Amino acid sequence: MSEHEGLDAQDEMFMREALHLAEQGAALGEVPVGAVLVQDGAIIGRGFNSPISLHDPSAHAEVQAIRDAATRLQNYRLPDTTLYVTLALLCMHEWHVSCLLRMSHALAWLLVKAAFFRNRF
């Protein structure tokens, strides 16, 4: 078992890649969030927040990762996938907290997220 309760070595590897992507976004002045989409133990899609640089309000990390995977696979269906997304909270005292959101079926994650935000307003 890893130092993080409930995560195995493969989970940590995918989260580290998502964190690396978040850093790439931060270097471009974006909110530092990264995402990878995994299928059968391999990364099939990568993305980081880029709504500012792309002038696209939908260019969030998880959407970019899903778009990347669909393009690579030449298929809009992405069954049996896991989406790893970082949520980076950068505080005044240089604290860095990252959370793991591990969801099966990436498209279901988007529906959950949409339902959450719809009920907040």
Largest sheet: 4 strands, antiparallel
* Helix and strand element order: HEEHHEEEEH
Regions with pLDDT < 50 over 5+ consecutive residues? 88-109, 113-121
Instruction: Please indicate the percent range of residues in DSSP E strands (runs of 2 or more).
Output: 15-25%
Count of DSSP H/I helices: 4
Strand order of the largest sheet: 2-1-3-6
| Residues in helix, % | 40-55%
What is the CA-CA span between the terminal residues?
40 Å
Silhouette: flat
Average pLDDT figure:
77
Number of strands: 6
By helix and strand content, what is the structural category?
alpha+beta
Instruction: Kindly provide the radius of gyration, computed on alpha-carbon positions and rounded to a whole number of angstroms.
Output: 14 Å
Keywords:
single chain, 23% strand, alpha+beta, 121 residues, four-stranded antiparallel beta sheet
